[in-house]
Amino acid sequence: MSRIVMNQLTHPQRVRLLYKTILRLHRGLPAELRALGDNYVRDEFRRHLTCNPMEAQLFMTEWARYASTITQQLGIRGKPKGELGEQIDPDAVDMLKDDQVVQLYELMLAAKGLGDDTSTVNDIRGK
């Protein structure tokens, strides 16, 4: 979409467009990743409905970057061209709030298919 058209959209329209784009991109993911990703995206977008403008800008920037990364990893045909995802920058993790670290940890457990009460340090480390 051209930059001129994007600038003419209201903030809620841009959010909705990004949300729908991400869900569309998730169609190219394996079924279990798609379900996990779709649920996570829905939860995150709902959670940020009432955030302040500075948080909203950061939220939109990061999710647009995610959409761009997924687009590159899935390619034109929407099929994974290799490994999906990327490593999290340790400096970025250090900047997260406590509740965000917990949320990230829970996402990691869900992605690895671990139950809350059955995971151990060795499970998390992949041993």
Automatic annotation (TrEMBL):
Write down the superkingdom of origin.
Eukaryota
Listed A to Z, the keywords are:
Chaperone, Mitochondrion, Transit peptide
Q: Does the keyword Transmembrane helix apply?
A: no
Task: From the Swiss-Prot or TrEMBL record, state where the protein is found.
Answer: Mitochondrion matrix
Cellular compartments per GO CC: mitochondrial intermembrane space; mitochondrial matrix
Query: Which GO BP terms, alphabetically?
Result: mitochondrial respiratory chain complex II assembly; succinate metabolic process
- One of this protein's Pfam families, by short name? Complex1_LYR_2
Kindly report the protein's main subcellular placement as a broad class.
Answer: mitochondrion
Assembly information from the UniProt record: Interacts with the iron-sulfur protein subunit within the SDH catalytic dimer.
Q: What does this protein do?
A: Plays an essential role in the assembly of succinate dehydrogenase (SDH), an enzyme complex (also referred to as respiratory complex II) that is a component of both the tricarboxylic acid (TCA) cycle and the mitochondrial electron transport chain, and which couples the oxidation of succinate to fumarate with the reduction of ubiquinone (coenzyme Q) to ubiquinol. Promotes maturation of the iron-sulfur protein subunit of the SDH catalytic dimer, protecting it from the deleterious effects of oxidants. May act together with SDHAF1.
Family statement? Belongs to the complex I LYR family. SDHAF3 subfamily.
Q: What is this protein called?
A: Succinate dehydrogenase assembly factor 3
Organism, scientific name? Drosophila rhopaloa (Fruit fly)
Q: What gene codes for this chain?
A: LOC108040450
